[in-house]
Amino acid sequence: MRPSEDPGGPPEARGAAEAIAAEVRGVAPGEVPGRLCRLAVRLLPVADAGASLRGDGVPVPLCAGGDRASYLAEIQATLGDGPCVSAAEAGAVVLARDLTAGADAGRWPVFAQQATAVGVRAVYALPLGSGAVCLGTLDLYRDTPGGLTGPQLRTARLVAGVMTRALMELPHGGDAWLDELAGGHDEVYRAVGMIMAQLGVGADEALARLRADAFAHGRSAYAVARDVLAHRRRFDPDR
What we know:
Elements: H1 11-24, H2 32-43, E1 48-53, E2 60-64, H3 67-79, H4 83-90, E3 94-96, H5 102-107, H6 109-117, E4 122-130, E5 133-142, H7 150-168, H8 176-199, H9 203-216, H10 221-229
Antiparallel strand pairs: 1-2, 1-5, 3-4, 4-5
Helix pairs in contact: 1-2, 1-7, 2-7, 3-6, 8-9, 8-10, 9-10
């Protein structure tokens, strides 16, 4: 694996590209996302990093450098809202510079509340892909408000670019861990089908009910979906 774009530019950009190349040299594509999440924390002014794959309505957590990244990926999957969801939908970089006040806090109020409760004050989400094709997002979490400088954003784009290339180079049919992720995503949609039948509602309403139940009980959408499939949780029309 090598960075997917010529670093060029100032010395700091070349240094970042060299660090990325060293981190992924000789590494199987399936191992690259996790390595790059950890590297991003060393290269950028962020406290944690993760990545999610884009799913139909429910992003699928791909990897996380630490507990906060993992937690906030699940929160966004459960809410269906947040900077990383917005970046995937738009296929564009989203820089939430201050989740404690102002426009960013107002744009994703519930997510902002959950993020700041665990000490995250800013989020930077970069799409994985190019042009109209967005595979997911690289998600960077910072514990102080603020933005990224031009060179820092370029470094983040380099990391996202190499991660995209790794995902596209996975063997046909995916890797074992990717198949497992897809299975978790399928569980949500099978559960949505059961909720549709239980409540007599459409798919959007059933997914909204699953998400609301998960959030109300402090659980992930995936955990509630598994309970629905195992018949441990039923959605009744009068509830």
